[in-house]
Amino acid sequence: MLALASDHGGFELKQAVKEYLDKNGFTYEDFGCFNGEACDYPDMAKLACDAVVDGRCDKALLFCGTGIGISMAANKVKGIRAAACSDWFSAKFTRAHNDANALCLGGRVVGPGLAIEMVDVFLHTEFEGGDRHTRRVAKVMALED
Ligand code: RB5
């Protein structure tokens, strides 16, 4: 189960990604927003990230205008490793090396075609593990304490 959330700036891109998820058999809960009216991305980020941290969802897909504001909010939620990405390589390696559990995309930055490729590779890439990456991710998480 995936947790989706956006503000108004990411709403249309979230809708396009939902079509991809529907066609490819992914289940998700959309924590809002539910239309293009202006709203505050930290509110939506919190709802989706709480669902990841408490185990209701495996990963979050988050959307705002740039992908940056919602990633900043997401990374304040303990247990979240959110990556704002605008290229395929970063979307892949933030899973492989950072074990990211939230992908943040900008509706005013990337088009739906690229966004869907990024979501696809993010969802199909496992954390590489191994000493180096495991140690580094643990050090990142220790910064929360
Ligand atoms: C909203 O206008 C915009 O600031 C927001 O979607 C996002 O880009 C913030 O980082």
Q: Could you please describe the fold and organization of this structure?
A:
The structure is a single chain. The protein has one domain: 3-Layer(aba) Sandwich (Ribose 5-phosphate Isomerase B, Chain: A). The mean pLDDT is 98. The chain has helices at 11-23, 41-53, 68-74, 88-96, 112-124, 130-142, and strands at residues 2-6, 28-30, 59-64, 82-84, 102-106. With 145 residues, the protein is of the alpha/beta class. Helix 1 (11-23) crosses helix 5, helix 2 (41-53) packs across helix 3 (68-74) and helix 4 packs parallel to helix 5. Helix 1 links the parallel strand 1 and strand 2 (28-30). It is globular and about 45 Å long. The chain has a 5-stranded parallel beta sheet with strand order 2-1-3-5-4, sandwiched between helices. It starts with a strand and ends with a helix. The structure holds D-ribose. D-ribose binds next to helix 3.
